[in-house]
TrEMBL record:
One of its GO terms (biological process) is signal peptide processing. The keyword Chaperone does not apply. GO terms for molecular function: serine-type endopeptidase activity. Pfam families: Peptidase_S26. Keywords: Plasmid. InterPro entries: LexA/Signal_pep-like_sf (IPR036286), Peptidase_S26 (IPR019533). Residues 23-179 form the Peptidase S26 domain. It comes from Croceicoccus naphthovorans. This is Type VI secretion protein.
Length: 182
């Protein structure tokens, strides 16, 4: 093994080895930074922070995973339809809603008076009028279609699938599945 030259002077083999190690460490560090930023960008593209401004849920902040399929009991974040009642309460461009998944595709929704049941289990009670006095139309009954969910909250004034203005929430309206953080 010969000696390397540094500014015209021979370098001992240990110094040459130390330069090679530093070069490979720098290349490896750069590779890790690139891979880390790529993974962070992918995570960012599939996640969003949602701030809940309503009283219908006890939580006010959610990490939303756009790639996770909702399961019973999960929080689901979705874009509400632009019905006159929703626009009157939430504006022309309402923020996404967050509700719990109470019914899954294939479950059966029934209504007996003001009581709403899913597969025989009571999940909600209907009100005839909103706090502002608007008539509330009951939501859908029957088998929940494929890729759709019955969503709701335990709050008596929750605006959810128990009313036709929200109805079943289907895949095309879902932003993602949320985990409460605050």
């Amino acid at each position: 093994m010969g000696l390397a030259l540094s500014e015209g002077r021979p370098m001992p083999p240990s110094t040459e080895h130390s330069h090679q190690v530093r070069r490979w460490l720098a290349i490896g560090g750069l590779g890790l930074c690139l891979a880390g930023s790529s993974a962070l960008a992918a995570w960012r593209d599939e996640h969003v922070l949602l701030i809940n401004t309503t009283q219908s849920l006890p939580n006010w902040a959610f990490w939303v995973d756009r790639s996770r399929v909702p399961q019973r009991g999960d929080f689901v974040v979705f874009n509400p339809p632009r019905t006159p009642l929703i626009v009157a309460h939430f504006g022309k461009a309402p923020a996404p809603f967050a509700k719990r998944v109470l019914g899954m595709p294939g479950d059966f929704v029934t209504r007996d008076g003001s009581v709403v049941r899913i597969d025989g289990r009571e999940v909600a009670r209907l009100k005839a009028f909103s706090k502002r006095g608007e008539k509330l139309v009951p939501g859908p009954v029957g088998r929940i279609p494929e890729h759709c969910y019955y969503v709701g909250t335990a709050h008596a004034d929750g605006f959810d699938s128990r009313y036709s203005d929200v109805g079943f929430v289907c895949r095309d309206r879902i932003v993602g599945t949320g985990d409460s953080v605050l």
